[in-house]
Amino acid sequence: MAPGLALGGVHIVLTGPADVPTWSVKREDVPFEIARLAAALNTAAERLEERQRAVALTAGAKDAEIFAVHRMILQDPRAMSEVEFAIAEQRINAEAAVKLLIERYQEALGKLEGDSVRDFGSDVSDPWRFVLNVLLERDREQVLQTEQQVILAAAALTPAVVTFLERERLLAIVTEAGGRFSHGAVLARSLGLPCVVGLPNLLARLEQGMKLAVDGDHGTVLLSPSDEQVTEFLERKRSLEGRREVFRAEASQPGTTLDGRSVRVQVNIESVRDLDTFDLAHTDGVGLLRTEFLYLERNEFPSEEEQYRLYRRVLERMDGRPTILRLLDIGGDKPLPYFQTPSEDNPALGWRGIRITLRWRDLLRVQLRAMLRASTSGDMRILMPMISSLEEVREVHRLFDEIRTQLTEQGYATAEDVPVGAMIEVPSALLELERIAAEVDFVSVGTNDLVQYLLAVDRDNPWVAGLYDPYHPAVVRALKHVAEVSGRLRKSCSVCGEIASDPAVALLLIGLGYDALSVAPQFVPEIKYIVRHSRYADLEELARRALAQDTASGVRAELERAGRELATRA
Ligand code: PEP
Ligand code: MG
User: I need a surface site. Which of 293, 302, 307, 338 has the fewest CB within 10 A?
Assistant: First the structure.
């Protein structure tokens, strides 16, 4: 979930042939759906003809004949009427009907023996896959042509869905699958998009253009709300906006509690674009730049020069405020389209983050060179993701020193002091914290991952979403441990996972002694307000009460009560 309220028409997103959702089509829209199918068939046939011509020129007419066969397959009236029948009788979208046909071919031919039969099977279904691709492309083109703002609905909340349309066109996102703390959700929050995930069978109940009222605060979606519901919804939206105004009014003031303790409120960003989404005066720096998103939105690895320029821009824009750049954290649910990682049964426990970059050292070398070259442009700090042992910390330090020497020899200037910190997001790092913290300059807790690894609950899996509970007493104890150890070793400690933006949890974190909270841009004013309107001594007491709880519901009750008390003062 990402908070906020939105009201508008829905557009169901199709991001790729592997993920074709089925949605309902009104009876009167069936002819339109069949016309979409016919148009896609024509385009597919034209493209196959073009391919045939091109292949005939390069490989010869004989090899090109397969495309003529593909066109003939598409003219088979029985297949066509089967798809039309599915659209009209089951009242489903054309893409879903084509997918059913492909599945039927596969099922029928998969049962037969012999390679040549199976090859024939793929020959029969391939041209229909082609039609499916045309339908998907056209859908995107059509939605791009209009200028309407829409609520996106999709099967899962992936980064591809979040970036399907430019931010200005998006009102909210609702999805069937995807955890609240998946990377797609993180991206949606950073764009300030209200979001509700984990709504099984949602798409089957939607029609394109249906009006929805999305409540990201409570995780609910109303389908075709009544006039009365719309009025009540808009009323709540106005009151939410009113509260936001109150937070914004004092967001440029220092983040200091009523009894004088300073807590930095920093911002999490994913791209240079995000730099325009917040008021610089509201923040005490960047607490987390997820550099992998700079890599995700491209077709190839960015060069050292490109990275250097990007980092320099971020530092210049932050104008001397602390800016934490995290080393590449790809893998898991953040695959790079141009970097082949093995397919893994258990990607969350697999090859990701520092494990990839320590194996493929050049990735780390190039990134460290670019960062160190940019370090003279501001107050830069470097953060290591997914640290699970001291060896990894030492290895990065060794590389860091080697690269700094190399840069000096090559005549590049680098900042005198570039602090290097570790993310605490793996239980082994938590248990080895004394040793790790002694060898780094600061620590930052990645609760999105720490909660999943501590509780053995996949952050992306909707089946266990109910067990992903940041209020679990074990999580509270882990957070206390990090604050205590780093306080003792006089190392700065922050939380940059999403829970820092939950007002009730923010109270706990301040009370535990964290000196910085880093949140998506839209939450900065509210968290700053919370800091400014609390007494540290009261929050220390609140943290003690939370730690004394033996159930998640007990922790939740304590923190939410404190949150409500503060809200009544807002
Ligand atoms: C985290 O795990 O909490 C974190 C901040 O990193 P990411 O969400 O990018 O894994
Ligand atoms: Mg993480």
Answer: 338
Q: What is the pLDDT of residue 118?
A: 54
Pair (489, 471) in one structural domain: yes
* Cβ(497) – ligand 1 distance below 6 Å: yes
pLDDT of res. 158: 78
Question: Distance (Å, rounded) from C-alpha 96 to C-alpha 73?
Answer: 19
433 and 449 housed in the same domain: yes
Residues 230 and 288 grouped into a single domain: no
By residue range, what is the domain housing residue 364?
Answer: 261-520
pTM of the model: 0.79
**Residue 566 included in any domain:** no
The rounded Å distance from CA 291 to ligand 2 centre is 12
User: What total of structural domains would you count in the chain?
Assistant: 3
Same domain, 159 and 121: no
Taking the CA of residue 446 as reference, the ligand 1 atom at the shortest distance is 3
Report whether 44 contacts 189 (CB < 8 A). Answer: no
Q: Which ligand is nearest the CA of 520, by number? A: 1
Asked whether residue 321 falls in the same domain as residue 464, the answer is yes
- Answer whether residue 456 is part of any domain: yes
For the range 402-408, what are the long-range contacts, defined as Cβ-Cβ under 8 Å and sequence gap of 24 or more? 403/365, 403/368, 403/369, 403/372, 404/372, 406/369, 407/369, 407/372, 407/373
> Are 102 and 210 found together in one domain?
no
Per-residue pLDDT tens for 339-390? 777 788 888 898 889 999 999 999 999 999 999 999 999 999 999 999 999 9
Evaluated on CA atoms 447, 450, 452, 455, the torsion sign reads: negative
The span from the first CA to the last CA of the chain, in angstroms, equals 23
